[in-house]
Amino acid sequence: MRAAAAVASFHLAPATSQPHRGASTTSSSCSLKPTPTARPPRLLSLAGRAPVARASLGISHDKGSEVSGSNVVGQNDLLIVGPGVLGRIVAEKWQKEHPGCKMYGQTASKNHHSELTDLGIIPSLKGSANSQKVPHVIFCAPPSGSDDYPGDVRVAASNWSGEGSFLFTSSTALYDCSDNGMCNEDCPSVPIGRSPRTDVLLKVENVVLEAGGCVLRLAGLYISSANVYLFISFTWTYKIDRGAHVFWLRKGTLDSRPDHIINQIHYEDAASLAIAIMKKRLRSRIFLGCDNKPLSRQEIMDAVNRSGKFETKFEGFTGNDGPLGKRMENSKTRAEIGWEPKYPSFTEFLGLSN
Question: Region (Disordered): which ranges (predicted)?
Answer without folding.
Answer: 16-42
